[in-house]
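[job 4471] stage=fold_predict status=RUNNING
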Amino acid sequence: MTNIQQQHTEKLTPYIEAYHLAADDVHLSGGLPNDEVPKAVQHFQCQLAIIGNSHQRNISSVLFGDTAHYLTRHTPCDVLIVKTMN
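[job 4471] inference complete, writing structure tokens
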């Protein structure tokens, strides 16, 4: 396990424990969300993907759109975008 995977696993652990999730129900993958979310949705045959969006605007998101917007067009299921509290 890489250092980054370990960091993410440590951040996920409180949620896994709080919601009594089985290890088989938790999947951690690395890569760009634009690539990984549609792949995971297809692999797990999801009917709904819930995506957090901080709504931080930068020049790249203004010119090309943000990840959440991209995923609404390229994910093969319904997508619910949730505004994160920053």
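[job 4471] summary: Residues 4 and 33 are 15 Å apart (CA to CA).
[job 4471] exit 0
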